[in-house]
């Protein structure tokens, strides 16, 4: 796999840790507090991101998109009900699964034929889809930032540029 995609995935993992660390600093009820937003609570956002990431690793591993979507739907309520510490542990375990998959992929890029639910088939690769996974996480971390502001709290910076700066300056903690 290309170096940029690996770095993007590392960034995604770092940014998720930043969000979890910030959420754990706030009152416990913030995690489930209802807000008028794209998602009804931060717990729903994180469940969505987790299930989407889980779905993509299943597709990368050879499962169909229909299987992935079914799995996500099947696990939705159970995942939303998890507490913040348990959700964080699930994200970390899933990140380890991604990293192991990337190591096993070595330098070759796995070709994917993804059949969308509408029947269309897209030919792509893991290499091309990693930025999608990362971008999806970035988008929803933005949702969380907006939701926190609605509730009267600040978020934490999770920009890719900050990640690069911290990594280059030696201030980066994995």
UniProtKB/TrEMBL annotation:
Signal peptide: none annotated. InterPro entries: DinB, DinB/YfiT-like. Keywords: Metal-binding. One of its GO terms (molecular function) is metal ion binding. The keyword Metal-binding applies. Gene3D superfamilies: dinb family like domain. A divalent metal cation binds at residues 48, 136, 140. The keyword Metal-binding applies. Belongs to the DinB family. This is Damage-inducible protein DinB. It comes from Virgibacillus necropolis.
């Amino acid at each position: 796999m290309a170096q940029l995609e690996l770095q993007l995935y590392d960034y995604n993992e770092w940014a998720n840790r930043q969000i979890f660390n910030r959420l754990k600093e706030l009152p416990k009820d913030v995690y489930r507090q209802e807000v008028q937003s794209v998602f009804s609570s931060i717990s729903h956002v994180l469940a969505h991101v987790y299930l989407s990431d889980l779905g993509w690793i299943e597709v990368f591993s050879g499962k169909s998109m229909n299987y992935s979507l079914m799995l996500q739907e099947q696990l939705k309520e159970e995942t939303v009900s998890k507490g913040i510490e348990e959700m964080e542990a699930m994200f970390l375990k899933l990140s380890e699964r991604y990293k192991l998959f990337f190591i096993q992929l070595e330098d070759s890029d796995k070709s994917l034929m993804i059949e969308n639910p509408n029947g269309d088939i897209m030919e792509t690769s893991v290499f091309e889809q990693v930025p999608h996974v990362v971008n999806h996480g970035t988008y929803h971390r933005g949702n969380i930032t907006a939701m926190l502001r609605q509730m009267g709290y600040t978020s934490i910076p999770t920009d890719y540029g900050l990640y690069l700066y911290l990594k280059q300056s030696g201030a980066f903690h994995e």
